[in-house]
């Protein structure tokens, strides 16, 4: 029983190391932030030394690219060239 309690505490202390997004989670994040977005591509990449998701999508007539951390934070959104 003590072991389960310690594991639970460890998971609460370092959730970022345990939690990782799926592509469907990434899709939901973009759709929530940009209602009506049409996602064209989701890829795992590296950005400034950390693993991220890079998402290409269309919204409001623009081609955009988002960088999302594995803990669900939208790091950056810009026009996709």
Reconstruct the topology from this structure.
Layout: H1 2-13, H2 15-18, H3 23-33, E1 38-47, E2 50-59, E3 62-69, E4 74-79
Antiparallel strand pairs: 1-2, 2-3, 3-4
Summarize the biggest pleated sheet.
Answer: 4 strands, antiparallel
* Helix content range: 25-40%
Proportion in β-strands: 35-45%
**Might you state the CATH topology name?**
Nuclear Transport Factor 2, Chain: A
Strand elements, count: 4
The CATH class designation is Alpha Beta
Number of helices: 3
**Domains (count):** 1
* Widest β-sheet, arrangement of strands: 1-2-3-4
- Could you say which overall geometry the principal axes of the C-alpha atoms support? globular
CATH arch. level architecture: Roll
What's the SSE pattern?
Answer: HHHEEEE
**What structural class do helix, strand and pairing data support?**
alpha+beta
Our Rg estimate from Cα atoms comes to 16 Å
Uncertain ranges: 1-11
Q: State the end-to-end distance.
A: 55 Å
Please, what is the average pLDDT? Answer: 84
Short description:
With 81 residues, the protein is of the alpha+beta class. It contains 3 helices and 4 strands; from the N terminus they run αααββββ.
Structure report:
The chain has one domain: Nuclear Transport Factor 2, Chain: A. It has helices spanning 2-13, 15-18, 23-33, and strands at 38-47, 50-59, 62-69, 74-79. Strands 1-2-3-4 form a four-stranded antiparallel beta sheet, covered by helices on one side. It has 81 residues and is an alpha+beta fold.
């Amino acid at each position: 029983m003590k072991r389960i309690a310690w594991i639970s505490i460890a998971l609460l202390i370092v959730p970022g190391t345990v939690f990782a997004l799926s592509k469907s989670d990434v899709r939901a994040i973009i759709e929530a932030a940009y209602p009506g977005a049409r996602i064209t591509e989701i890829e795992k990449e590296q950005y400034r030394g950390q693993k991220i998701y890079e998402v290409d999508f269309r919204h409001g007539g623009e081609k955009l690219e988002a960088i999302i951390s594995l803990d669900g934070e939208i790091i950056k959104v810009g026009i996709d060239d």
